[in-house]
Structure to design on (369 residues):
């Protein structure tokens, strides 16, 4: 049979799907622009690399990759349980928290039920919901923040899952403890709240609610990741933390070997490297202060962030600014896809990277070339 493409071959919900656009890779940028040095401040990765302890553990484990990984992630879950003072059964691990978003939707959202989240939040909630043919309802952000009061008004008998990114990507804002608690009060029983805490390590405010404090009382699932502060984006490891009964069903929908052998070894060691986390936090908070100052000097407004990135209003078409920065060897993320046409999101880098970015941004915005 000759292959003959017909759109009818494709499931209806996939036909008009907009795919996730990942941060542009360094190597690709070097090739395209003939550049020797390119810095990437586009995917909220750790600019310090990975914990040396994790790297050593990965190298040590590498010889064993002829075997399948431990499907139960026994040692890693046990370690996580001791870190969080919970039990191993409270954890479901995934190939990045991206996969856990899929697992959560597959496990809990039936046909006809819907997912509630916000506009201008992590796009994967919407994309993965669509792939699973589930309806997504959104509320607008208010002052770049999740508007939980508005979201609560949108809950109907069909709403099954609520995704709250706390802090939110791409805005860097957070919902406070009182705001979250007000939202949780009186929710329908047949509803699960997912708190996505991908950036929890960078928090520098006192009224941030730690999701794990709520999992015993609420139908609440916390998502965390080793991709950001732990510097293990390339390994792919995310964690869902929740009530054991919910976790047991998520265990049934995940792939059996979704957490690879190197990820298990690396994460286990990374959890012991407190010094690396401490340095990462320090460099991030210092870099944030530096970037704020530079934006103020340039007369640019930005959204105060509790994460490792900042959303900044560059006052002109963000695609153009993105492209001009690329030519100068700096990759950021333009916010066109989020409908924030004049904004870019920049990940806080090392001091050297931050200076390079500031210099390049000044050139792009203010210098006649
Ligand atoms: N949630 C949020 C809010 C994110 O920003 C990201 C990464 N961009 C993720 C989840 C996914 O992280 P990972 O799959 O690498 O764990």
């Amino acid at each position: 049979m000759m292959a003959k493409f017909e759109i009818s071959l494709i499931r209806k919900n996939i036909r008009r799907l907009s795919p996730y656009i990942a941060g542009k890779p360094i190597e690709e940028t070097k090739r395209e622009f003939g550049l020797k040095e390119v810095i990437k401040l586009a995917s909220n990765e750790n600019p310090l690399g990975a914990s040396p302890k994790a790297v050593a553990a990965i190298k040590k484990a590498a010889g064993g990759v002829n075997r399948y990984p431990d499907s139960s992630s026994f040692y890693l879950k046990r370690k996580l349980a001791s870190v969080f003072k919970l039990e191993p059964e409270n954890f479901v691990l995934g190939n990045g928290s991206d996969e856990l978003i899929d697992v959560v939707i597959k496990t809990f959202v039936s046909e006809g039920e819907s997912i509630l989240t916000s506009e201008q939040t992590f796009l994967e909630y919407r994309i993965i919901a669509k792939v699973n043919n589930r309806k997504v309802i959104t509320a607008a952000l208010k002052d770049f923040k999740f508007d939980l009061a508005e979201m609560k008004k949108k809950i109907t008998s069909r709403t099954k899952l609520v995704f709250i990114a706390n802090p939110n990507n791409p805005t860097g804002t957070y919902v406070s403890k009182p705001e979250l608690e007000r939202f949780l009060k009186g929710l329908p029983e047949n509803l699960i709240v997912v708190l996505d805490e991908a950036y929890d390590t960078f928090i520098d405010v006192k009224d941030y609610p730690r999701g794990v404090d709520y999992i015993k009382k609420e139908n609440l699932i916390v998502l965390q990741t080793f991709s950001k502060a732990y510097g293990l984006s390339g390994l792919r490891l995310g964690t869902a933390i929740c009530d054991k009964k919910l976790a047991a069903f998520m265990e049934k929908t995940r792939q059996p070997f979704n957490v690879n052998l190197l990820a298990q070894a690396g994460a286990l060691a990374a959890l012991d490297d407190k010094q690396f986390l401490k340095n990462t936090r320090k460099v991030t908070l210092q870099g944030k202060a530096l970037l704020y100052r530079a934006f103020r000097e340039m007369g640019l407004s930005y959204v105060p962030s509790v994460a490792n990135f900042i959303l900044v209003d560059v006052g002109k078409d963000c695609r153009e600014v993105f492209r001009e920065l690329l030519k100068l060897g700096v990759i950021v993320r333009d916010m066109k896809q989020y409908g924030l046409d004049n904004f870019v999101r920049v990940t806080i880098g090392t001091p050297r990277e931050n200076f390079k970015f500031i210099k390049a941004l000044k050139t792009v915005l203010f210098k006649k070339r």
The mean pLDDT is 96. The longest strand covers residues 159-165.
